[in-house]
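Chain A, query sequence.
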Amino acid sequence: DGYRALGYVRDGQAQLVSRKHNDLTERFPQVAKALAQAVRSPACVVDGEVCALDDEGRPSFSAMQQGKAGTPIVYAVFDVLEVDGVPVLDEPLVERRARLEALLDTRQKTVQVSGFFDDGDGLYAAAVERRLEGVMAKRRQSRYAEGKRTRDWLKIKTHGREEFVVCGWTKGQGKRAGSFGALVLGTHRGDDLRSAELVWVGNCGTGFTERDIDELLQKLEPLRRDTAPFPAVPKMAKVRKDDVVWVEPKLV
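Chain A, predicted structure.
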């Protein structure tokens, strides 16, 4: 629901870098400033996620994308790679966790230490109740694996729901001849939304009432554009090229 970012602190200055080595410091200057103030080390590296919070305090990609004034932005830090210039990658997670808690001044509200719980079943149940995306399960003795996906860290999703960007609609047939047949959906692949590639993930044409359709078209009509917002026009089965209306990818 946010941007995975490594935080580098050197002599009172912090830099945020994505997993693909994109600099996120200018995009989140308040986070970088808060990180520099929160750490108790002149040279350290931490790992975390920059998130926008919705009205209920939950991480929200939609809130991040919309970027409304006053939206709370936090940096949830969950690991540490270096302390006082010394790498700690090979230390067990539980030891790195202790270092992380000692490293950060949690009175700085923008930088938060990600929660750590032993009761995985209870945490998962709480995530379901709060309608969160899921939880991370990590082996207590695992080392930090740079740039790799391992079975030591697993994301356990609470549901099959995900947010997608509306990129257009297909013209309706039959009873829907005057409206739309399906919404054309995409998602951003990449850590930095400004440079992330928009990828087509499919179309959705069910679950809409007539009122839903009318409200959607009122919002989509002003966003019409002549070309597809994707790098390449996706090939959709049984959909002719002229039967797609493209829109600016602004609605989620």
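The longest helix spans residues 93-103. The chain has five helices and 13 strands.
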